[in-house]
Amino acid sequence: MALTPVQNQTPAFTAAVAAGAGAFFGLFVGTAQGSGFLGLIIGAVLLGVLGFVFTSLTAQEKPIRWAVLAVFAVAGFFVGGFPALVIGALFGWFTGWFIFWLATSRYRATLAPYLTPGQVLWHYSFRVICGAIFVFLITPILVVMPLSFNAENFFTFTPEMLRFDPEGYSLKHYRDFFTNADWQQALWNSLSIAPMATLLSVGFGTLAAIGLSQPHVPFRRAIMAILISPMIVPLIISAAGMYFFYSRIGLQGTYFGVVLAHAALGIPFVIITVTATLVGFDRSLTRAAANMGAGPVTTFFRVQMPLILPGVISGGLFAFITSFDEVVVVLFVGSAGQKTLPWQMFTGLREQISPTILAVATILVVISICLLTTVEMLRRRSERLRGMSPS
Amino acid sequence: MKLRNLSALAATTALCAPMALAADMANEMTLVSWGGAYQQSQLKAYVEPYLEMNPDVTVVWDESSAEATAKLRAMSEAGNVTWDLVDVVASDAMRLCDEGLAMEIDPDEDLAAAPDGTSASDDFGDLLVSDCFVPQIVYSTTFGYRTDLVGDTAPSSVCDVFDLEAFPGKRALQKRPIDNMEWALFCDGVAKDEIYDVLGTDEGVARALAKLDTIKDSVVWWTAGAETPQLLADGEVVMGSTFNGRLFSAIAEQDQPIGMLWDMQSFDLDGWIVPEGLPEDRKARVMDFLKFATDTQRLADQAKYISYGPARASSAPLVGKHEELGIDMAPHMPTDPANATNVHIYDYEWWADNRDDMDAKFQAWLAQ
């Protein structure tokens, strides 16, 4: 359904825009191969020429796109074997689609007719920028995953891996994680510290947020600032301070010391999320509950808690992840007996670059995805049940 | 009355003494080491045998040797020393000893004599570089190169590192002045025994940095020992310096196409220190362990797991084969005569005096 009537573009326009896109991709490919400038030129020239030629051939779009795909795939195969074939085919598909998308002005079809060319350009540039940011955020995480199945003890894509040879892949780093006593101890420590720290953060944080949202509490802003400070003060400073303080009172190097330190780091997250949900909380509800004879505790658990639960849960989730990912404070406050997963990964990375770290990272990423998906599903379910369907 | 009291006291003392002795040793020890293959060799060679003899004892490892000096300072300031035995390189041991953070050790009193009766102080000999330091191993910082990336002629001299024409490509060097400055001067034509005299002058420092300047654009700087093997395995660098045990492990255990360049390898020592200020029971336990762990057989056993030379003269003839691979370990030792034809003896005292100054100059040069 076209909003704007379209007609074919001039070859010069298509060639210029395609060359721009070619230069953009060429810059990255070229940099990876050693010469960004050369890649930029080759990419621009290649796509520019293709764009110029294809603009006059819009009638034969389908066969030409298939041909481009095939040529790029074959070229890729000769350069770098099977994996390059896949990349070449993807690139060929994109090139063919992109040029005809430009040449036939399809890019204009879904936009409002009154937009100036500048606005159209910004509309798509904005999407490209967003996409690029997304790629930069996610690629380092994705690269780690195939590497964790490496059969060698190095962070390297071996030739066997690139050929998709089963010999190049192995589960040995996962086996190492599940059988190595050091890693298991670290996992166990993390799993026993994080929930306790979360529990404390959620308890104290929720109480503090509720108290601080009462209008009659004096010095609310100052108290709030102090409670939030662990988030603002550089972690290394809190850690050093905690080290000396906990050493004096005998908490340094103990399980409770680490739990307390992590709880202190988690409380600000809970306070912030719960305070945010309390803003939308109608105080007349608590008065109504009191009016019907409910004590403050009953009111809290039966009226207020269910309504602010989303904030409490997401605050708790942040507190859990903070404790689970934290390495600086535990290095100071913990002793070797409280070695958590991030600590073990930190020393592992420094002393012995072993892909076991990548296997652990992959497992943690998968767990995080599952956790966040579950929370999101639960949230949607509760909204559906309450008749507030987001769709 | 008085007499009876005294005799009662004597009786109780006599009764309690043996019990007190047994109870005087703490049953938990925190050992600090470097992690990785090196810590594994310590575990196999003497921690596991010691635990077998003393089943009540538990050992906790802390892989913090890299920041041992800073952490020990913080612990002593906080009055809470949680470590019992710390593995450090010789220069760190000297610093800790000077600052009073490490306990002085009398080799003949606290350490085991050699099986033939040679006293410990004679057996360790010159390697006892500090009053607080019990050396375990001699290791070297030396170069490895990718056999498939260096062309037809393999590098044979440390000066090939500075030869970008014959061996183009990146090199990995440690991000510190020690060794790099000496190698640079040596390859600039300074005789080996004059290196530290030249380096002591401003012109000498400028000369060393100028030599390093010729390859600066091709250098990847590393800080952790595991980085160079990784870079070599990736083919990111064609040659790089690291600890010889790391290279041995990449070559013999991981089958990487890497060759050893032993020319001008820089010898260094690694060993134990006991932190100052331990409670009596923990100190008794750790001294008991230390005596066992540094005896002749134990140090020789360690060489079965990693290619570092034992620090005792009497251990050398006992070095056998690799525990898993079954290859002779002696030819892989930095101290083997075939490898030690041209050795650089790194001058601890010179570096102790000049370290801060050199670090500043080196960092300034790096930042240029």
Helix % of chain A is over 70%
- Rounded to the nearest angstrom, the distance between the terminal CA atoms of chain B is 84 Å
Order of helices and strands of chain A: HHHHHHHHHHHHHHHH
Mean pLDDT of chain B: 87
What's the alpha carbon Rg of chain A, rounded to whole Å? Answer: 29 Å
Number of domains of chain A: 2
Low-confidence stretches of chain A: none
Count every helix of chain B, treating DSSP H or I runs of 4 or more residues as helices. 14
The CATH architecture term of the largest domain in chain A is Orthogonal Bundle
Structural class of the helices, strands and pairings of chain B?
alpha/beta
Any idea what the CATH architecture of the largest domain in chain B is?
3-Layer(aba) Sandwich
Helix percent band of chain B: 40-55%
The structural class of chain A is: mainly alpha
Whole-number tally of structural domains of chain B: 2
The CATH superfamily of the largest domain in chain B bears the name Periplasmic binding protein-like II
Major sheet size, sense and barrel closure of chain A: none
Total of DSSP H or I helical runs spanning 4+ residues of chain A: 16
The CATH superfamily of the largest domain in chain A turns out to be MetI-like
**Cα Rg of chain B:** 23 Å
